Amino acid sequence: MTPDNEVRFRACLDDVAAYKPGRPPARTDGRPTYKLSSNENPYPPLPGVLAAATEAAAQMNRYPDMGCVELLEALSARFGVPVSDLAVGTGSVALLYHLLQATVSEGDEVVYAWRSFEAYPIAVQLTGATSVQVPLTADARHDFKAMEAAITERTKVVLVCTPNNPTGPVVRRNELLAFLDVVPSNVLVVVDEAYREFVRETEVVDGVELYRERPNVLVLRTFSKAYGLAGFRVGYAIGHPEVVGAIRKCALPFGVSYVAQAAAIASLAVEEELLERVDALVVERARVVGALRAAGWDVPESETNFVWLELGDDTVKFAEAVQAEGVSVRPFPGDGVRVTIGESEANDLFLGVARAWRQ
User: What is the pTM of this model?
Assistant: First the structure.
């Protein structure tokens, strides 16, 4: 029995594990260090984006526009969707939290592939709902037949991460369409496309296209990855008004700062230049994947800004070996490591360890 003088917490917190961010590299010998553990864009801000953020910072004594009106209008113009179908938040993960808060509670179920984005089980558990994790296929892809079988009358939401974090493969349009055809219309399907700009697969699903056709589809995207605004935390959701309206009701007031809004708007204005940087990262991704496969690694097809190495029980040892070279990667103990495509110098240090590991 809990003593009367002790604070009591919700039972669902008992099994919630804290989110683990990518660790920064550590080295004491004076040589450069590199962080490949957080899927950050290695390029510095473009001058115009930096100038917009700097100008906005001069108004830090004022609250930001809670409605994010100018940013929503810019996104509306960019995607050809009404403002009523858009919501913004402190990263796409915040929008996911708000959505689950609005849709599920104890007794409900949320279905998603596993392993996938590690925030999913945390976000679900905090609502009191139950996670239904469906194992990936042998080639690290979503198993839609198994996900279909996992849907019950208690299922309220299905999460589809494409490309999948941390393994990298993308969901193809035909397989998701076939899945949507059998998902009950009252089950919301969230298409999480945080890495959409890095995709080069021609048969890829486009969540925005599906949202236009399906009232039970919601799309999540972010400015953190391709646009290089990870430090400002701004993401957006595209969905039908009733879904977006529920998200907005659960959002924290003034969550997206004025600086973040200004930087996001400026980024949309120079999108072509920013996406040239994405093209360069895609080329570097191909180089890294090619080198890993030449060294004997079985690397899943990555359509993101990272690669996945399945290592099982050797995961932590491998991460420590890379760390010894001044490069941090993201270990998932017992499963594998996720390695961001960063500066070529960092990638080469990682590849050196990966080649030696296979000898």
Answer: 0.94
